C-alpha cells in the first residue's frame, strides 16, 4: 500500500513536469523565510525557568506558473526530542506540486495535511502557540501523499487525503496508510463550519487503527474573530482503548491599527487517566503588535493547570516574535 502511495505521488510529479514542458508562459516565484523566537520567564516556583529561544525557522521557495500549477519546497529547522535541547534539526517540511482549476485543488508529494489546517489558519498565531491538534500531538502538519479538494460553490467545499500517516519527521513503513475526509461550510458572511474524520491503519500485530474526529466553528469579521473546536482521538499511538479528547476556544479583538488582543483556553482529557501527565487546562491571554510589514511581537501570560494533583500549576510570561517575508 505504501508503494501505491509512492507511485501515485510519482504520477502527479510526472504530470506536473509534462504540463510545465507544454506551457512556456513565465510564472512568478517567491522566497519563503520565516523565523519564530521567544523570551520566557516563570513566576513563583517556576521562576528558574527563563531564557531566550530560537524556536523555528522555515526556508524555501515557491514558484507559480500561469496555468494553475505551482511547486514549493521548504526546509524546517526546529527542535527534536532525539537530540539535546540546545541543538536544532533540519527537515524537509514541504516538497509538493499543486494544481488549481475550476474549483479543483490537487496536491501531491510532501504536503500539508488537512486534519487541522483550517483551524491553524483561523487561529493565525502559529508562532505564539500551535493549534490544538498540533500542540497535543493528535496528528502531523505535513506528510507524504496526495489530497484532492473541490469547491462546489462559495458556501460548500469538500476534501479527501491519503498519506503515509507518519508525518514529515519520521517517514516510516511500519504502519498502514491514513485516510481522511473533510467538509467545509460557509453558511453566512464570516461564518465557517468544518467537520473532519480520518482513519490511520495499523498493520503491526497487537496494534489498533487510530481514528481522529474534529469539528470547528469560527466567525471572523472586521478584525474580530472567535473560534471553537472539539477533537476526539481513538486508540492513541495505536494502543487499543487509549482515547483522548479536547476543546480549544480562542478569540481576537482589534485594539488599534497595529494591535490585537487575544485569548485562548485549552482542555485536554484522556479516558481512565492513561495520559494524566498531559491532561489539564492551558489558559493564555496577550496582545499582538505588528512592528511593520514583516515582524510581529506578542507578549502574553500563560497558566498551565495539570489534572494530576501531584503536578504544580505553572504561571509564565512569554514574548513571542515572528519574522516573515
Written description of the protein model:
- The protein is mainly beta.
- The protein has one domain: Beta Barrel (Porin).
- The protein is 10% helix and 55% strand.
- The protein is built from 3 helices and 16 strands.
- A 16-stranded antiparallel beta barrel has the order 1-2-3-4-5-6-7-8-9-10-11-12-13-14-15-16.
- A hairpin with a 4-residue loop joins strand 2 and strand 3.
- Mean pLDDT is 88; it is low at 1-24.
Give structural attributes:
single chain; 325 residues; mainly beta; Porin; disordered N terminus
Give a quick precis of the structure.
With 325 residues, the chain is mainly beta.
Radius of gyration: 21 Å
Name the CATH architecture.
Answer: Beta Barrel
Helix content: under 10%
CATH fold naming: Porin
* Highest CATH level, the class: Mainly Beta
Unreliable spans: 1-24
Helix/sheet category: mainly beta
CATH superfamily: Porin
Mean pLDDT score, rounded?
88
Number of E-state strands: 16
Which shape, going by the Cα principal axes?
globular
Give a short account of the largest sheet.
16 strands, antiparallel, barrel
Amino acid at each position: 500500500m505504501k508503494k501505491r502511495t509512492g507511485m501515485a505521488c510519482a504520477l502527479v510529479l510526472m504530470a506536473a513536469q509534462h504540463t510545465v514542458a507544454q506551457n512556456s508562459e513565465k510564472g512568478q516565484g517567491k522566497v519563503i523565510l520565516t523565523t519564530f523566537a521567544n523570551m520566557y520567564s516563570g513566576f513563583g516556583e517556576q521562576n528558574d525557568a527563563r531564557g531566550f529561544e530560537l524556536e523555528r525557522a522555515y526556508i524555501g521557495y515557491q514558484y507559480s506558473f500561469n496555468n494553475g500549477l505551482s511547486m514549493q519546497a521548504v526546509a524546517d529547522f526546529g527542535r527534536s526530542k532525539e537530540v539535546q535541547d540546545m541543538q536544532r534539526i533540519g527537515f524537509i517540511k514541504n516538497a509538493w506540486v499543486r494544481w488549481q482549476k475550476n474549483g479543483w485543488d490537487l496536491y501531491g508529494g510532501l504536503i500539508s495535511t488537512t486534519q487541522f489546517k483550517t483551524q491553524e489558519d483561523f487561529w493565525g498565531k502559529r508562532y505564539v502557540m500551535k493549534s490544538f491538534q498540533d500542540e497535543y500531538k493528535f496528528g502531523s502538519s505535513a506528510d507524504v501523499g496526495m489530497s484532492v479538494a473541490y469547491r462546489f460553490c462559495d458556501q460548500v467545499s469538500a476534501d479527501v487525503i491519503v498519506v503515509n500517516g507518519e508525518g514529515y519527521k519520521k517517514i516510516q513503513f511500519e504502519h498502514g496508510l491514513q485516510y481522511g475526509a473533510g467538509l467545509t461550510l460557509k453558511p453566512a458572511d464570516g461564518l465557517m463550519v468544518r467537520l473532519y474524520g480520518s482513519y490511520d491503519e495499523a498493520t503491526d500485530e497487537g496494534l489498533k487503527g487510530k481514528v481522529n474526529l474534529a469539528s470547528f466553528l469560527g466567525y471572523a469579521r472586521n478584525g474580530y474573530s472567535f473560534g471553537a473546536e472539539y477533537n476526539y482521538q481513538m486508540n492513541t499511538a495505536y494502543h487499543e482503548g487509549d482515547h483522548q479528547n479536547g476543546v480549544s476556544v480562542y478569540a481576537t479583538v482589534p485594539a488599534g491599527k497595529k494591535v490585537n488582543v487575544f485569548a485562548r483556553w485549552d482542555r485536554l482529557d484522556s479516558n481512565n487517566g492513561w495520559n494524566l501527565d498531559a491532561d489539564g487546562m492551558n489558559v493564555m491571554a496577550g496582545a499582538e503588535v505588528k512592528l511593520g510589514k514583516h515582524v510581529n511581537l506578542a507578549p502574553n501570560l500563560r497558566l498551565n493547570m495539570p489534572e494530576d494533583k501531584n503536578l504544580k500549576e505553572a504561571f509564565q510570561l512569554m514574548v513571542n516574535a515572528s519574522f516573515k517575508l
